[in-house]
Amino acid sequence: MKKAEATLFDSLHGKLGEEVLIVTKAAQLNLLGQVFRPIFAGTVHEVTLGHITLWPVIIKMVNAPFYQFPFPLSIPFEQVVSYSTEIPSDLQFPLT
């Protein structure tokens, strides 16, 4: 495990049950024909040595800024660019 991933694990492991906003590396993603920026907000459900799982999770899309993904979402640490526990998941902000 890389030092950055170990640091991320240490900081997120103490956040179980808390809301977090995560931005991942991809410039944009495609889900069900909707192209969106990789911004996810949700409750930290699980943190392991390689990934974080959010459940419930909201995918911040331009056309549906509060789309609740129907399954838990696991994000590998190497894909996490930044995260914040200061931004509530119900906050609406511009995505364009």
Give your account of this protein's structure:
- With 96 residues, this protein is mostly beta strands.
- It is built from one helix and eight strands.
- Strands 1, 4, 5, 6, 7 and 8 form a six-stranded antiparallel β-sheet that branches. Strands 2-3 form a two-stranded antiparallel sheet.
- The longest helix is centred in the N-terminal third of the chain and has 11 residues, at 3-13.
- The relative contact order is 0.25.
The level of helicity is: 10-25%
Number of helices: 1
What pattern of helices and strands is seen along the backbone?
HEEEEEEEE
**Class by alpha and beta content:** mainly beta
Termini gap: 34 Å
DSSP strand count: 8
Described by strand count, sense and barrel closure, the largest sheet is: 6 strands, antiparallel
What would the principal axes of the Cα set say about the shape? globular
Q: DSSP strand (E) fraction?
A: 35-45%
Could you tell me the mean pLDDT? 90
Taking all Cα atoms into account, the compactness measure Rg is 13 Å
Low-confidence stretches: none
Indicate the topology.
Elements: H1 3-13, E1 19-24, E2 29-31, E3 34-36, E4 39-47, E5 51-59, E6 67-69, E7 73-76, E8 80-84
Antiparallel strand pairs: 1-4, 1-8, 2-3, 4-5, 5-6, 5-7
Give the key terms.
single chain, 96 residues, mainly beta, six-stranded antiparallel β-sheet, 11% helix, 44% strand
